[in-house]
TrEMBL record:
Name of the protein: HTH-type transcriptional regulator PksA
Domain of life according to the entry: Bacteria
Cited InterPro entries: BetI_C, DNA-bd_HTH_TetR-type_CS, Homeodomain-like_sf, HTH-type_TetR-like_transc_reg, HTH_TetR, Tet_transcr_reg_TetR-rel_C_sf
PANTHER family in UniProt: HTH-TYPE TRANSCRIPTIONAL REGULATOR PKSA (PTHR30055:SF226), HTH-TYPE TRANSCRIPTIONAL REGULATOR RUTR (PTHR30055)
Organism encoding this protein: Lentibacillus populi
Entry's Gene Ontology molecular function annotations: DNA-binding transcription factor activity; transcription cis-regulatory region binding
UniProt lineage: Bacteria, Bacillati, Bacillota, Bacilli, Bacillales
DNA-binding region as annotated in the record: 31-50
Amino acid sequence: MPKIVDHDKRKIKIAETTWKVIIRDGLEQASVRKIANAASLSVGALRHYFSTQSELFQFSMKLVADQVKQRIARKNYDGEPLDVMKEIVSELLPVDEDRRIEMEVWLVFSTRTLVDPSLKQLSQTVYKEIRHAATLVIEGLINLQLAKDDLNKELEIERLYALVDGLALHALLHPDQLSIEKMQDTIKYHLESLCNGNG
């Protein structure tokens, strides 16, 4: 009886192998042949799933974004409002090994968008989705009447997004300088600074 292959799982496995090759060797060295070897596939078998390197990179980049979204959607947030919001923001930061890998791969792909137009649209879509997460947090503070009366919603959304980006980048480039605890303390401090003190 022929072996039944789950093609969706195989594509995900190839994408995750792509991440590992990129982290180990860099994006420029992540050739289809090298990725196929790492995934224990022939180049022909890999091309059955992804006809071009660009198509493989698009799927691999989208998988990072999808995993973050699914994790946020699956999680049961419970507790004090500020703690819940800190948890939501932490989903976007490299606070454990899985998220560090996701963030590192995303950073590499993001630089690739400067020269690969096929990745640019996906990058813009994910930018909007992450900005939406920042929007939920800021609007949550406002709707729960925790925010200062003079809080500028639009500017605070941008500032929170910029803070997340900056912390993630610093944590990847200088992990010895920015610990997970420091990242989370910084997020907590920032959120508390937006509050009116009545929460």
